[in-house]
Specification:
Length: about 180
């Protein structure tokens, strides 16, 4: 089909990579063909599990920020198959590899930032940095995968940290109110 690519193996060794269209091959004991949809976007969750019924469990993974606060972050990554041969034969579980690498990249990124920045202005920077760091590591492993997008689903504070932030916000509002009065 127009959205598929195939890897032809002759006696187990890669003989050719073919694109869409009609192609001929030798019978089964000699040639084997693995067909993959290379344009379909696949999705995986970092810190949560994607379920097929539309309901996602978005608890998030716990991450330590640069100023020693704990956050729960859930991130969704979308990816496509870039190189079918590498995708089939270089990685056992591409989705598992993506999740592990993205978790490490997310931890490194958030660890370098204070909690205020993570919760306010740093959200887009985190998404972009996780995407580029994950893609760089996947390229090192010749995984055959290209990350298309990285989106933060949720960022939740620990309850005690959330209460402290609320107290600071209330104090700032009280200060502003007293100035106005």
């Amino acid at each position: 089909d127009t959205d598929e690519e195939a890897v032809v193996r002759r006696f187990g060794a890669i003989a050719a990579e073919v694109g869409p269209g009609m192609h001929y091959r030798l019978p089964w004991p000699i040639d084997q063909v693995d067909v993959l949809k290379t344009t379909s976007v696949m999705k995986t969750g970092v810190g949560f599990v994607l379920r097929g019924d539309g309901q996602d469990a978005t608890d998030g993974m716990e991450v330590l920020t640069g100023d020693t606060n704990i956050l729960s972050i859930a991130l969704a990554l979308q990816y496509v198959i870039q190189d079918p041969a590498d995708f089939l034969f270089r990685t056992e579980s591409a989705e598992g590899l993506i999740v592990v690498i993205a978790e490490a990249a997310l931890t490194e990124t958030v660890l370098a930032m204070p909690v205020d920045e993570v919760l306010t202005t740093g959200r887009l920077a985190i998404q972009e940095q996780v995407k580029t760091a994950t893609q760089a590591r996947l390229d090192e492993y010749h995984s055959g995968v290209r990350i298309t997008s990285s989106n933060i689903m949720t960022i939740m504070l620990d309850k005690s940290v959330a209460e402290a932030f609320q107290e600071v916000t209330d104090a700032m509002a009280d200060r502003e109110k007293s100035r106005n009065e």
